[in-house]
What does this fold into?
Amino acid sequence: MSKKTNPGERPQGYLTGRTIIGIVALIVVLILAGLITYVYVKTAKEGGKSEVVEVPSNTPQTNTTPMATMAKYNQLQNGMSKQQVFDIMGGPGELIVSSGVEGRPGFVQHWTWDGDVSGAYCKVRLTDGSVDDLTQSGLP
It folds into this structure.
């Protein structure tokens, strides 16, 4: 036997059109807020510039990243600035992780340089602009 409802009462679990529209609107607002935040952080990381550069697929890819060596790695120390690391390594390596906004507390970057032996590398983590972790593997 089905339960009788009073006039104006809705069955349990019934969603009104207004409720559904409200839920959809909330989802759209959350998606837009996330997109705006992503664009703001990405633009802030790039110094306020936003640019897309396409490289044709037939353009030969060359590795212009300086090579890591044990001699260079041994000169690196915790507390060094990014520029000091770049000077020792011969230039910027490959930025593999960037988290946060530069100039704000908690900004983290992970840079890596490949060695001249297959699988050899040097990784440097900078937090708030200074080295706080150094790792290497297989550098001769």
Remarks:
- The CA atoms of residues 94 and 112 lie 5 Å apart.
- The longest helix spans residues 17-45.
- Residues 48-55 have pLDDT under 50 and may be disordered.
